[in-house]
Write a structure and sequence with these properties.
Blueprint lengths: L1 H18 L8 E4 L1 E2 L11 E2 L1 H13 L3 E3 L13 E7 L5 H11 L8 E5 L12 H10 L2 E5 L13 H16 L5 E3 L7 H10 L2 E3 L21 E2 L6 H9 L2
Parallel strand pairs: 1-5, 1-10, 2-3, 4-5, 5-6, 6-7, 8-9
Bound molecules: zinc ion.
Length: 244
């Protein structure tokens, strides 16, 4: 009997790592402008609305569940979790909102997160307070923080201002909790993470990989994100989200 138990235990140990501990890999995509590129700024910080729509249709047709950070705990509950994020709060993100609304049906409930620079709210080309409130109220878009002035956080001292003020202002505009911070330029260090932890539950980097839970310290403040560029094809997107 002991022998049988030993064999069973050995088999279990052999099987366990691949089965039970199979790592779920979660893509967190980063976009900036959802618009035609008209020759201003960096082309790779744009994705044409038509391409964005095709990408979202791909995700819909392949069974992805689009989540926001307030549903983080659902990554273990839903089919193929993925996060769609937009940095800098461009006015043209309304194009993404329209596409989400258009594709929304009973089975597919697209959602995304816009990281806004709180001092830039209402500038020309940027989302206004009423845009943010309207999108947050829709339940389709979560509005989160990208600091007050978009500094390189590894080079500043006024953390309370950049981190807390932006959180407070955005919460006041949307009436919804701000729990995630996208580090401007993806720049962070130990100090930045320690300061972020005072006010936020999540910190977003631009480390280009899929998220998988490793149990390392502060991993929710080191969330990786993969850029989707103007030139990213549907085949490339498919490979990115499948983790190939
Ligand atoms: Zn930015």
């Amino acid at each position: 009997m002991k022998k049988v138990a030993m064999i069973f235990l050995c088999l279990l140990i052999l099987i366990l790592p691949s089965q039970v501990f199979a790592q779920r890999k979660v893509p967190i995509l980063i976009y900036h402008s959802i618009d035609e590129f008209k020759g201003h700024g960096s082309k790779d910080l744009y994705v044409a609305p038509k391409n964005f729509e095709k990408q979202m249709i791909y995700l819909r047709d392949h069974g992805y569940t689009l989540l926001t950070f307030d549903r983080w705990q659902d990554i273990d509950k839903v089919n193929k979790p993925i996060f769609i994020t937009f940095d800098d709060g461009w006015k043209n993100n309304l194009n993404a909102f329209d596409i989400f609304q258009k594709l929304k049906n009973e089975r597919f409930q697209p959602t995304g997160t816009i990281f806004v620079i709180s001092d830039f709210i209402g500038r020309s080309n940027r989302l206004s307070e009423s845009d943010l409130k309207m999108m947050a109220d829709s339940g389709i878009i979560s509005i989160q923080s990208h600091t007050v002035t978009h500094p390189n956080l590894t080079k500043i001292k006024n953390y309370e201002y950049e981190l807390k003020e932006s959180k407070d202002k955005i919460q006041k505009v949307t009436g919804k909790p701000v729990i995630a911070l996208a580090y401007p330029y993806g720049s962070f260090n130990n100090k930045v993470v320690a300061e972020t932890k005072k006010y936020y539950s999540f910190g977003l980097t631009t480390i280009p990989e899929l998220f998988s839970e490793k149990g390392i310290k502060d991993e929710l403040y080191l969330l990786p994100r993969i850029y989707i560029k103007y030139s990213t094809t549907l085949d490339e997107l498919a490979k990115i989200v499948e983790g190939d």
